[in-house]
Amino acid sequence: DTGVSQNPRHKITKRGQNVTFRCDPISEHNRLYWYRQTLGQGPEFLTYFQNEAQLEKSRLLSDRFSAERPKGSFSTLEIQRTEQGDSAMYLCASSFDRGAQETQYFGPGTRLLVL
Amino acid sequence: AQSVTQLDSHVSVSEGTPVLLRCNYSSSYSPSLFWYVQHPNKGLQLLLKYTSAATLVKGINGFEAEFKKSETSFHLTKPSAHMSDAAEYFCVVSDRNGQNFVFGPGTRLSVLP
Predict the structure, then answer these.
(1) DSSP string, A22-66
(2) What is the per-residue pLDDT across A78-102, written as a single tens digit (0 to 9) for each?
(3) Touching check for B5 and chain A: CB below 8 Å?
């Protein structure tokens, strides 16, 4: 399968614990995006990378959240000191920079439940 | 700033009847527009996209959408619904650089036998 992959698919954690999610984009894609989707809502943008550079962060991304893409390939999203409000589906997408022609391809997501 | 409105949170149709999912957008320049579908426990799948070429866009699984600038709309249609079409559908607008994806709230499509 050459699509976007995310691990783990599900994560249950206790409030206050740290969690880390991984995203492996489509191999030739230079852009990588993270979104959060809560029940009954559309995905909301969190942050994106062009190669290894993190170019934009949403105000939704509090200082408990950090994302990296160290070699311009896979990315990790870490949430420190999780809160119940962090429970959501975390989606990763990748794309190739084509300006207006750009299309984002999404992974299956990581569903986080904070107890 | 861009925004997307999906006028119906839930649409229910009978199998074999037409589907219409409505989307209106707001953008200060010519946008790119997309429809994505999300089946339960599956990732978002691209149905079709408009990027300033033909205004009538054909996508996968028999879906199509028409870009109407005068109405700022990009409604999704399908002539005949199939049970497998039951899912959540998202209309998306992006800026001219293709980076800033703004999702609508989604429309849940139910298909009745």
Answers:
(1) EEE--TT--EEEEEEE-TTS--EEEEEEETTEEEEE-TTS-TTEE
(2) 999 999 999 999 999 999 877 666 7
(3) no
